[in-house]
């Protein structure tokens, strides 16, 4: 995740060998994309609460939408994306207030809707529990990996700098390690 870091973070991530950059503030994605030439940038993953009104400005920049959790967002992405859209569904497995994500039971319906809209569902993502209890974290990550497998999906996005070892042990195919690469985040620019 390169959120709150300037466009140089996109360049650094490429030099460091990352396969993508993650962002979750629409204004930052737009600003960074204006400063980093398309030929010089990694694929951009949008990871964070999606609002329908932001999709239009992001559609030509975002390569993978990692936090889709409802049909209205899927429909807007399908309508606005200039190329076949690729998504991951965010699944809330912690039941923590304020965390986005659909329930595990909604994944099948969302997958069918995405197929009808011509959207490629790459996989699922989740955010681990905020209490940082390794046993709870492992349980959450194992549950997501099971859902990915049950639905025959390819990608399992889970784990951040603080819990990436557990995520990898439990089958993550994508980890979000911004603070491990860039250090502590500066205050956000919204």
Q: Would you mind describing this structure in some detail?
A:
- It is a single chain.
- This protein has 190 residues and is an alpha/beta fold.
- The chain has 8 helices and 7 strands, in the order αβαβαβαβαβαβαβα.
- α4 packs parallel to α5.
Notable traits:
190 residues; alpha/beta; TIM Barrel; 7-stranded parallel beta sheet; 7 strands; 39% helix; globular
Q: How would you write the strand order of the largest sheet?
A: 1-2-3-4-5-6-7
Instruction: Name the structural class.
Output: alpha/beta
Unreliable stretches covering 5 or more consecutive residues: none
Share in β-strands: 15-25%
Q: What order do the helices and strands come in, and which of them pair?
A:
Layout: H1 8-15, E1 21-23, H2 26-35, E2 44-46, H3 52-58, E3 64-68, H4 71-80, E4 86-90, H5 107-117, E5 120-125, H6 134-150, E6 155-160, H7 164-169, E7 174-176, H8 178-182
Parallel strand pairs: 1-2, 2-3, 3-4, 4-5, 5-6, 6-7
Helix pairs in contact: 4-5
Quick summary:
With 190 residues, the protein is α/β, with parallel strands linked by helices. Helix content is 39%, strand content 16%.
């Amino acid at each position: 995740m390169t959120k709150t870091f300037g466009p140089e973070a996109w360049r650094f991530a490429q030099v460091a060998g990352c396969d993508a950059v993650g962002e979750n503030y629409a204004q930052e994605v737009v600003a960074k994309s204006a400063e980093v030439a398309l030929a010089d940038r990694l694929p951009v993953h949008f990871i964070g609460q999606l609002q329908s009104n932001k999709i239009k400005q992001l559609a030509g920049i975002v390569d993978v939408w990692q936090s889709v959790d409802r049909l209205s967002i899927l429909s807007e992405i399908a309508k606005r994306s200039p190329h076949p859209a690729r998504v991951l569904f965010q699944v809330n497995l912690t039941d923590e207030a304020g965390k986005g994500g659909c329930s595990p039971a909604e994944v099948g319906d969302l997958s069918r809707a995405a197929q009808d809209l011509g959207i490629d569902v790459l996989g699922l993502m989740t955010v681990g529990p905020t209490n940082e209890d390794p046993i709870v974290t492992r349980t959450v990550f194992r549950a997501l990996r099971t859902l990915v497998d049950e639905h025959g999906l390819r990608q399992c996005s889970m784990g951040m700098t603080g819990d990436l070892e557990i995520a990898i042990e439990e089958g993550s195919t994508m980890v979000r390690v911004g603070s491990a690469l860039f250090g502590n985040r500066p205050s956000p620019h919204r």
